[in-house]
Amino acid sequence: MTFTPFRIDVSDEVLDDLRARVARTRFTDRSGDRPWQGGADPDYLRDLVSYWADGFDWRAREAELNALPHYRAKIGGRRLHFVRVAGKRPAGAPAPLPLILSHGWPSSFVEMLPLVDRLTDPARYGGDPAEAFDVVVPSLPGFLWSELPEGPLTRAAMARTLHLLMTDILGHHRYGAFGGDVGGVVTGWLGALYPEQVAGIHMIHPPFPASFDAHPLSPAEQAYLDAEVAYDRTDGGYSAIMGTRPDTIAAALIDSPVGLAAWLVDKYRDWSDNHGELESRFDRDTLLTIITLYWASGSIGSSFRQYFDFDHNSPRPDITVPAAFTVSTEPSQANFPRQIAERACTDIRHWSEPGRGGHFMPLEEPDLLAGELTRFFTSLHRP
């Protein structure tokens, strides 16, 4: 199996159509008496869309993204997009442990780019150049220019695809894996399925065990699970519709750029550590880059497939490789007990609750997270 270079190349026709659609946008009135109370705030959307139409320079962002080495590989007959950046190491330094960084939903490879800089060129950020890593950042199957596989899109299927990328395509015999959200779950599956090749895993969302039957729940575990159920009653509408009627909502979002923006921005605000101020964590250019990538690739519907196929997932085996966790600060992770992760992982080497950085931590706290990744994976790779 081979891989070939790839460039992001959004046609003028697509961009002209996008601007025309944005110009014809109709906005709803706000529900409730507070901004964001009923979801994406119409006033914020008006401002964001105005900038999208008249201030956002996609061609400049496209050029920045294309400065990175992009590729596509065929795995199981389906194409997978990824970025691969070699570490800048001193002459004579030992080969590093390669790392694969996997994003979640509603995200993309763009989320990982601040980590790529810091992990491949640590000297630029005051780190040790001998600790530079080779880094691979895939677009998960169904996202952007990565095609869906044959059969259900399970976490195990995604893990198999990423493992083949790292081993058969790129030739790595041993590697480390990091991820959050869906990418974190896939990272856990990589550690469970391939302990001989996966040196260790790092996640910002600790895993659940395949079953809680091994021993009774502690009070802390029960309190967390109860709180999760309560939170889902206020936040779970998006996953309910994507898991049961994905084609219905996808039909609206693939036809309306502002509808797409609303669907994504709502989660960037809800799940990041922004204290109610979305742009304290993400500038508009970053948000619109991610939204434009979804629009140009037409992949919002396929990004829902892992929700629709959720019931096809089988119980995950225990994770026996060394594991590290830098727990995100977001409502769904509040008071997450380490005991739950210990039910799933037999060798937790590092547990950190920094109190900052949410669902999109690589974008929100890249220095913090890059330091945690470097310390953990370097410790695994030292003689």
Task: Give the number of domains.
Answer: 1
Mean pLDDT: 95
Quantity of strands, as a count: 9
* Spatial strand sequence of the major β-sheet: 1-2-3-5-4-6-7-8-9
Q: How far apart are the termini?
A: 32 Å
Computed over alpha carbons, the radius of gyration is 20 Å
Q: Please give the CATH architecture.
A: 3-Layer(aba) Sandwich
> What is the name of the CATH class?
Alpha Beta
Largest sheet: 9 strands, mixed
Task: Give the helix proportion (percent range).
Answer: 40-55%
What can you tell me about this protein's structure?
With 383 residues, the protein is an alpha/beta fold. It has one domain: Alpha/Beta hydrolase fold, catalytic domain (Rossmann fold), CATH 3.40.50. It contains 16 helices and nine strands. It has a nine-stranded mixed β-sheet, sandwiched between helices. The longest helix has 17 residues.
